UniProtKB/TrEMBL annotation:
<protein>
    <recommendedName>
        <fullName>Secreted protein</fullName>
    </recommendedName>
</protein>
<feature type="region of interest" description="Disordered">
    <location>
        <begin position="1"/>
        <end position="26"/>
    </location>
</feature>
Length: 161
């Protein structure tokens, strides 16, 4: 069973002068000393191929949240991970992927049914948002040798304009 973090919450006092809040989009806003900083906790993505559900529908867009320490520790006690350490990413992604298309009950079975290219994409996406804190990648055009940044969360699929 997965635990869900409530999408809306207010941190601080009940009179509305609290220290911060979490909006429905997963952005945490923390106010200290009158300033406002925000931290994004949920990231949208577009799978290269898409998850095909039991009815044959294809789901491509999804949401992944930042991992907590618990998300990374709990799978280490899982017998499937102990028997096969490569299964760690399947269990971990089953905990942090919140939605793929209209599918909201994401678990290891859903992650196992992804195409290999989609699994590789999600593993890289997880690493980018949790280790690097963003979904941008620096790339260089092979034709003109110009360097620029692309957002891997994108909205379009690779190779499409």
């Amino acid at each position: 069973m997965r635990r869900k973090i409530a999408p809306t919450a207010v941190v601080g006092e009940k009179d509305g002068t609290g220290a911060g809040s979490v909006d429905a989009g997963g952005t945490v806003e923390v106010r200290a000393g009158g300033g406002a900083d925000s931290m994004r906790t949920e990231f949208t993505f577009e799978l290269p191929r898409g998850y095909v559900d039991e009815t044959g529908s294809v789901h491509r867009s999804g949401v992944m949240r930042l991992a907590t320490a618990r998300d990374e520790l709990v799978p280490l006690r899982d017998d499937r991970v102990r028997e096969n350490p490569a299964y760690l990413s399947v269990v971990l992604l089953g905990r942090v992927v919140e939605r793929i298309g209209s599918v909201t009950d994401i678990h290891t079975g859903v992650i196992e049914d992804l195409f290999a290219s989609d699994l590789a994409f999600l593993q890289d996406f997880y690493r980018r948002i949790n280790a690097e804190g963003h979904t941008r990648a620096q790339v260089t055009c092979p034709s003109c040798d110009t360097a620029f940044a692309v957002d891997l969360a994108g909205g379009g699929r690779l190779g499409e304009s």
